[in-house]
Every structure is written in structure tokens, then in C-alpha cells.
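A reminder from the course coordinator: this example appears on the midterm review sheet, so study it carefully.

Given structure:
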């Protein structure tokens, strides 16, 4: 019998590597495809920018079918997240240490009840914050949030997903909305980004951020905000790749570094396709010239800036720049 498998390459033309939301969304695509899918992620330099390219190493179908499989995986992930939020209300908001630990305990002992949901919770919790650093003498209070969590309770990850994003991309509704959901997902992944959704970008998209301090208006009160809902959803699916950890009494978030100008999110861009496990390892590596020797072409970064004026404490990603390689 002749082996019909081959490697398919599909350019995700809407997802640009020099944009934090584009990078996170591309990572989210790889993650929702699953670690056993045979799919890998690389980047191609085109027209002065980097574009995500998905590689299917065990392909037996045509490019059109591969594209449809990606869209279906994203839509299924949206359904799974909707079910998770129904089962565990409040998980996308600021959790108390007690509640955080209860959810973690359930996830670790959920093999018989719902192993898939247990794994999802186990991966998600460390990306939202950590219970390692208690905020009062009794070891109580809220968990320390991840630096990826940049908005307030009024515009929390949970609120944004449930109210503004999932309704746009969930295919399990009527036929008309299902068709629209597919269109939204395809536009996010393959472009163009139309910025026609009313969802908040959760601080991850510099393109949509305004100078709220100058306007004296908090992001949660901004009625003019526009976003690419499916791209924001995909970025949320990349969060487990950036867990929190405590070192020396301080909470650190994978992918972030601190200097005299404050906190920065930085991310690598590489050419050769890599697996989800390799990506998880890569984004956790320290920023050294060794990355260049291992195939990283460029590293971008953006400042985690304060906004919201006197009405709230919000963070947004500033416009990205290339991160200079360290000296030898």
C-alpha cells in the first residue's frame, strides 16, 4: 500500500508575528488543534512582516479540508470554554485563594468524573494567577493575578468571553449564526481583521487601545471599542502556555520581563515548524543569544502600560518593537 501522507502548509494570513495579539492567537490555534494532531507552527517572512504558517505532518486531505478542520477545532474549543464557564462560574475573575485551591483540588481528582475538564482546569489556573503568595497574615485574600490579566472585574476575562466573544463564534446555535461564526473565525485566522465586534480586546491588541487617561474614560465604559472577537478568543486559548510562578517572594509570569521602564511582554519568532510541547518550552526560555543559535529569527516585545485615567487601574500592551539581542 502506498503511503499517501504528506506535509501540508497553510498560511494563517491574518496572524502576524510582529503583533502581540497575532502571536498569541497563532499559539492559540496550535493549542486548540491538540498535541496529538500532527500539526506544527512556524513563521514565514513576507512583505516585511512575519506570518504564521501551520504545518500538518500527517496530512491525508487537501488544503481546503485542512482549513475547515482548523475552523472546526476553534469552534469546538469555544463550545468547550462555554461549558467550562457554566460549570465553574467565576473562574475567569479574581479568585480567592480558598476558591482557587478548591478548583485545583477538584481538577486533580476529577479523573473519574470528567478527566477532560479536569485537565482544562489544571492548565488554566496557573495561567490566571498563583496562590503561592498570600496577601495577608492569615494566608487569605485574592490570588496574585498573572501579568496577562490586564483588565478589572467589570471587564474580566470571564465577562468578556461569555458576553461578547463566545456568542460571536459558537457554531452550536441556529444555522444563520453558525455561518456567521465560521466567517468570524476565518476572518481572524486568515484575515482581514475588520474590527467590527463589540468585545474588549483585554489589553492584548495595541491597535484598539486608546489613550483612556486623556479621554478620562475607563476601558469598561468605552462604548466605541471595536475588536476581532475570534482573535481575542484564540489568544485566551494560549494563556496556559504562559503560567505564573513565584521566585523569591515575587510572582513572575512566563513571557514577561522587568526593567527600569516597567514590565514587558516579549515573544520569539522562528521559521522551522515546532510542536505544541516545543512551543511551551521555547516561550519559557531566558532571553539570551543562544536563542538565535537555536533558530529564533527575531524577538519582539511590547510594554505593559497603565491606562484608565483616575477611574481604574488597567493595563494594555503598547506598540511592539524588536528586542535587541543581548551582547556576548
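Designed residues:
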Amino acid at each position: 500500500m502506498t503511503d499517501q501522507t504528506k506535509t501540508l502548509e497553510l498560511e494563517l494570513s491574518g496572524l502576524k508575528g510582529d503583533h502581540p495579539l497575532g502571536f498569541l492567537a497563532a499559539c492559540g490555534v496550535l493549542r486548540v488543534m491538540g498535541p496529538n494532531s500532527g500539526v506544527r507552527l512556524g513563521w514565514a517572512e513576507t512583505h516585511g512582516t512575519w506570518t504564521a504558517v501551520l504545518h500538518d505532518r500527517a496530512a491525508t486531505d487537501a488544503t481546503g479540508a485542512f482549513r475547515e478542520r482548523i475552523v472546526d477545532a476553534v469552534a469546538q474549543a469555544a463550545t468547550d470554554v462555554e461549558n467550562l464557564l457554566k460549570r465553574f462560574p467565576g473562574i475567569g475573575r479574581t479568585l480567592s485563594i480558598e476558591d482557587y485551591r478548591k478548583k485545583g483540588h477538584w481538577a486533580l481528582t476529577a479523573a473519574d468524573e470528567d478527566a477532560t475538564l479536569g485537565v482544562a482546569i489544571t492548565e488554566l489556573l496557573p495561567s490566571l494567577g498563583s496562590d503561592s503568595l498570600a496577601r495577608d497574615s492569615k494566608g487569605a485574600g485574592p490570588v496574585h493575578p498573572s501579568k496577562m490579566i490586564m483588565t478589572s472585574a467589570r471587564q474580566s476575562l470571564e465577562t468578556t468571553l461569555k458576553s461578547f466573544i463566545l456568542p460571536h463564534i459558537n457554531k452550536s446555535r441556529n444555522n444563520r449564526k453558525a455561518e456567521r461564526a465560521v466567517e468570524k473565525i476565518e476572518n481572524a485566522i486568515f484575515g482581514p481583521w475588520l474590527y467590527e465586534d463589540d468585545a474588549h480586546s483585554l489589553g492584548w491588541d495595541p491597535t484598539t487601545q486608546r489613550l483612556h487617561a486623556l479621554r478620562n474614560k475607563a476601558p469598561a465604559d468605552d462604548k466605541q471599542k471595536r475588536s476581532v472577537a475570534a482573535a481575542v478568543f484564540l489568544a485566551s486559548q494560549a494563556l496556559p502556555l504562559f503560567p505564573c510562578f513565584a521566585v523569591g517572594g515575587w510572582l513572575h509570569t512566563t513571557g514577561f520581563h522587568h526593567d527600569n521602564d516597567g514590565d514587558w511582554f516579549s515573544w520569539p519568532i522562528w521559521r522551522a515548524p515546532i510542536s505544541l510541547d516545543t512551543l511551551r518550552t521555547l516561550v519559557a526560555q531566558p532571553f539570551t543569544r543562544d536563542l538565535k543559535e537555536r533558530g529564533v529569527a527575531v524577538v519582539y516585545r511590547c510594554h505593559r502600560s497603565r491606562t484608565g485615567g483616575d477611574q481604574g487601574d488597567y493595563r494594555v500592551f503598547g506598540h511592539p518593537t524588536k528586542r535587541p539581542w543581548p551582547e556576548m
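The chain has one domain: 7-322. The radius of gyration is 20 Å.
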